[in-house]
Amino acid sequence: MHGSEHSDVLVVGGGPTGTALATALASRGLDVRLVAPHPPTAYPATYGAWLDDLPGWAHGCAAQVWTDVRVYTGPQPTALQRPYALLDNRALLDTLLGRAGTRLDWTLGTVKHTEHAAGHDITHGVNGERWTASLVVDASGHGGTLHPTAYLEGPAFQTAWGLTAHFARPPITPGSMVWMDYRPVGTADSPATFLYAMHLGDDRYFVQETSLIARPAVNRALLGARLRARLDAAGTPPGEVLSTEWVAFPMNGAAPAPTRELSFGAAAGLVHPISGFQVASALNVAETLADTVCGAMTSGTDAAQAGWDVLWPEERRAARDVHLLGVRALLGLPAGALPEFFRTFFELPPQQWRAFLDPVTPAGSLARIMLRLFAHAPNGVRVPLARAALARPDASVKALQAAWFAAPQSGD
For position 98, which CATH number holds? Predict the structure, then answer.
């Protein structure tokens, strides 16, 4: 069936998550059509990940790995003692495509909608194309194409503006990676933003001013001005600018209800609501999801429902409730309290703050970590956190019940 208008699976979207799932399915012998508005090209965004979050095969796709990873919530750095990787996007794409064999058909087009017929789905393109498939997967990115993502109380955005440049004076310690630098630029840094930066070798550095989460979103002009002010104040203005990057995406997607089509990646609400990460998780989950879909198709059972059960089991839905409570807490913190919040966060035992950033940590563990964070936070952080919880007591109680009724987890 390869090259025909019908395929076993049609994947909408050619980003890293869509490509990862499409190639995983193709490597298992399914005929897969990937529909994207662009040919296979290296992904334009800067993707970083904790090295231990990446599947083993993806370690070879790391452009660089730092062992000196730092957070600044005050004058002195906190060493995170966890290697961090920058992905080589061309190597990642080539590795994924190399795993697909001959079963992947990359089709240029833009999907408009799907309709259902007996035994298959019909997918329509904006230029009148019609493709049929036994299963359609929406991996089109933030917001989704086939089914809009729900954002409770409206979307809250992570935004960032950054540049890669040559620097006459290093903006961060050479050889290091700064995961978060909340040291203020001026006397009234509101909204709060932080520096995310990497030494890329020689005199090249990537520096990015980031708003972790805000509603409404912090705009590009403010972030660009804040980054320039930060670099100027440190006496490290950039020299030749090699590239710039603007990032904006919603963070607070609710756990979606299953639909006839399967979704994956950001379109399935898999963006981590606290960190914004999802690529490393998608690279891992793609393998399990492909096994499940392939098995369901072989046995004649509902492949979409089987896939949804992998992506959003009840335990993960409960964990999302806890994470969304954390989102409300962050949105309710005044700008000046954010550095203190993250100082307390990174003073937790490493296994706990790592678990909180892990998308598969059970709800009970997450809730107990949140309670421990609340207990150790200074009053300037604790009071706004309490207000956030009381703003929607029904949702807060539902989320925190997991702390008492879930089975204890090791390392709590």
Answer: 3.50.50.60
